[in-house]
Amino acid sequence: MTSSRMYSHLEEIAWIGQLADLKEEHYRNSLLLSAVIELLMEKGILSAEKISAKAQALEIQDAAAIRQIQCFEG
């Protein structure tokens, strides 16, 4: 087995480890966000409708920004 082949396998293992770390971090962030949203809704500060409307508005803004970037690239 050549050293470049071994290095490639080690790189793959490192990438898999990083992916696992990212998945764990994503889970913790999602859990934290869900807890904050639940608390805000329980206290009557936000409603599910307001959260949904804001999420849709942000999604529209993101899509517009992506289209704008693609226009500059293309």
Fold and architecture overview:
The mean pLDDT is 91. The chain is mainly alpha-helical. It contains 2 helices and no strands.
How would you summarize this macromolecular structure in one to three sentences?
This protein has 74 residues and is mainly α. Helices cover 89% and strands 0% of the residues.
Strand portion: under 5%
End-to-end separation in angstroms reads 43 Å
Assembly status: single chain
User: Structural class given helices, strands, pairing?
Assistant: mainly alpha
- Binned, the helix content reads over 70%
Count all strands and give the number: 0
What is the ordering of alpha helices and beta strands? Answer: HH
Ranges where pLDDT stays below 50 over 5 or more residues in a row are none
Shape: flat
Average pLDDT rating: 91
Largest sheet: none
What is the tally of helical segments? 2
